[in-house]
Predict the structure of ATPase involved in chromosome partitioning.
Amino acid sequence: MSRRAAPFQLALINHKGGTGKTTLAVNLAAALARRGPTVLVDLDPQGSALQWAAQSGAAGLPMAVYGAEAAQMLADESQPSPHYVVWDCPPALQQDGLQALLGRVDRVLVPVLPSALDLWASWHLVRLLEQAGAGRSAWRAAFVLNQAEPDRAWSQAMNEAVAEFGLELLQSVVRRRAIYRSAALQGQTVHTLGRQAAAARAEIEAVLEEILK
Ligand SMILES: Nc1ncnc2c1ncn2[C@@H]1O[C@H](COP(=O)(O)OP(=O)(O)O)[C@@H](O)[C@H]1O
Ligand SMILES: [Mg+2]
C-alpha cells in the first residue's frame, strides 16, 4: 500500500473553446504553488499552457507544467507526489478520457462567459458532472463566471440562468481584464505582475478560496 498522500486535484473543463480554461488553470496553479508543490497538466494538443510556460523564460512559472505524459508520471509511486495538480483540458476531450479524469479529480471548475449561448452549450457536460459526482461526498463541481462585466442586471440574469442547470456557481467572478492577456503574453501570472494586477490577483485568490473550502 502506498504511503504517498494523494494530491488535491482540480480540472478546468468546458467543451467550448475560449471560455478561460487555460487562463484560469495557469493563474490558479500559480496561486496554489504558493501553498505547496503544484503540477499543471496541459491536456490540450494545442499546448497553450506549455507555450505560456515557455514564454516565462529563465524565471519560469512557480509550478511544473507538463503535457499529457504527466498522467503516467503522477501515477509513479516511487516519485514524491505534488500537493496540488491542476488539469487544463482541451474543448474536445474524448468521452473515456473525460470519464477517467472526472474519476480522479476532487474539483471541477467550468468557466463560462457571460453569454446564454455559452451557458447552454455546457448542458451535456453538466449532466456528465452530475453522474461523476454521484456518491462522492468530497467531490464538487461548479461554474465560474469569466470575463464578467460590472453590470449588476446582467449578472443577476446570468445567476438565474445558471441556477436552472443545478450546478453550483461560485460567488467569486473573474472580470474581463487586459492584464490576463498580457500575463500570458509575458509568461507571467497575476501573482508576479505587481500592483497593476492587484485586482486580478484578489479575484483569483477569492476563486481559489472557494474551491479549497
Ligand atoms: N478574464 C479575462 N479577461 C480578459 N481576457 C481573458 C480573460 N480570460 C481569458 N481571456 C482571454 O480570452 C482568450 C481565451 O482564453 P483561454 O484561457 O485561452 O480559453 P480556453 O482555454 O477555454 O480556450 C485568451 O485570449 C485569453 O487571454
Ligand atoms: Mg485552453
The mean pLDDT is 92.
